[in-house]
Design a protein that fits this description.
17% strand, three-stranded antiparallel β-sheet, elongated, 36% helix, alpha+beta, 3 strands, single chain, OB fold (Dihydrolipoamide Acetyltransferase, E2P)
């Protein structure tokens, strides 16, 4: 009987942790020092507030993701341009 109770408890713990456990997040380790041409960027997203480094991730036409500093003027221009397309 104890084995059955332990097994049920284990199943319960696994199902709860799968539901409420950590999710996959995109966090950046560093910002790129290079300027990315606006014409090469198709979309962007902001990293989670749980990330150590605040960043914007630019998605390019070449299907690359580039981490950039959201405080830079050229980054803000790209974000404004992309937002105006919506």
């Amino acid at each position: 009987m104890r084995t059955l109770a332990a097994l049920l408890a284990l199943v319960l713990v696994i199902s709860v942790s799968a539901q409420y456990g950590p999710t996959t997040q995109s966090c950046c380790e560093k910002h790129t020092p290079h300027v990315v041409p606006a014409g090469k960027v198709v979309s962007y997203f902001k990293t989670s507030s749980n990330c150590y480094l605040t960043a914007i991730v630019l998605n390019t036409v070449a299907n690359k993701q580039i981490c950039v500093n959201p405080d830079l003027t050229w980054v803000q221009r790209i974000v404004t341009k992309l937002d105006s397309r919506l």
